[in-house]
Structure formats: structure tokens, C-alpha cells
Amino acid sequence: AEARTAEAARRLAAGQIVGWVQGRMEFGPRALGNRSILADPRASDMQVRLNAAIKKREPFRPFGMVILAEAAADWVELGQDAPYMQLVCPLKGGKRRPMPAGSADWDFAARLAVPRSDLAAVTHVDYGIRVQTVGPEDDPDLRALLLAFQALTGCPALINTSFNRAGEPLVCTVEEAYAVFVETEMDYLIIENAGLGRPQPPQLPA
What we know:
Layout: H1 2-13, E1 18-21, E2 35-39, H2 46-55, E3 65-68, H3 69-75, E4 87-90, H4 108-112, E5 128-134, H5 140-153, E6 157-162, H6 174-183, E7 188-191, E8 194-197
Parallel strand pairs: 1-7, 3-5
Antiparallel strand pairs: 1-2, 2-6, 3-6, 4-5, 7-8
Helix pairs in contact: 1-5
């Protein structure tokens, strides 16, 4: 499990999109760590990339954030634990990046491309963030991954979005997870302690 967590954290820190399948299936309006797609929330292009390559939906659609519970107050106005990702919270004022002068005259795509915070991929245009907190008594696998990612990057949070294609429910089985992995532009798939990357094209002799 430690090797799996370290590999996932390393790949996420390198900007890869990771499918994360652990334990029993989950269902409901949000994926909370058993059937999730995870990515680095600091990457300014990750929101557009995930929407285009995985979710096949409009580029402005925001993603939720999973964060260590003890770090949440540093980033958002929350005031409570949020283990089910059902709350949208304002980003703290000190974490906000103001829009450039004259940006009100820009077109929508140009304004959308401006990072609103250091967590650009999860900060919506109104500085709201949908939050899931993970405390010491919550999901141990997801918490270990957050801690490993924080150790590498200084960031205590990840993008957490549901492991599914557009118009489909959350994946349940290994076969379903593999099918979504193959048919999208996900970089790496972790199922329990096993990892699977993209095959590299053969190197032809010069």
C-alpha cells in the first residue's frame, strides 16, 4: 500500500491524471475516494483538460476538491467538516488572485483561463470551491495519498471527480474501470495495490 500511494503521489505531482479504485463500490451524487479520478488542482490547464479528455463536457465546468481536514481552514470559509462533498465554500480572501485590469472586456474563454487561485483547477469563476474534507478518522487510503502528495508538493488537496464517462454511472467493477481508462486520456490506473500505465509506443531503430 505504501508503494502504491507513493507512486500515485509522484504521478499526480508530475501532472498526470490518475484513476483511483479502492474497496467496495460507491454510489450517490459524488465520488468520495473509492471510485475517483484524481489530479493536481494547482495545474491551470487541468480543469479544461479533464473536461475535454475525460468528462467530455463544457470547459468551464468546475471540479470538486478533496483536502486534508486540518488544512481546509487555510483555504476556504468552511467552519465544519465536509466529508460528503456537498458544500460549496468561498475561497479565503487572502488566497484569491484578482482579475487583471481590463479583463471585463475579454471574451468568456479568456476570462475563464485566468487562474483565480493557486488551486486554479478547483476554483470557480466566483471563487467558490466544492469541498470534501478527509480527517484522521476518515478514508485511510485517500488520506495517506493526500499526505504523500502534500509531502511532495506542499499542497494538501487534490481534484476529486467521479470515475465515469459522460452520461454513465460510477464504475463498479475492475472491468468497467479498465474500459474507462482505455477509452479516455487518463494517464494511470490504480486498482487496490495494482497500477497500470499507458503502453509506450515501440522505439524503432534509427
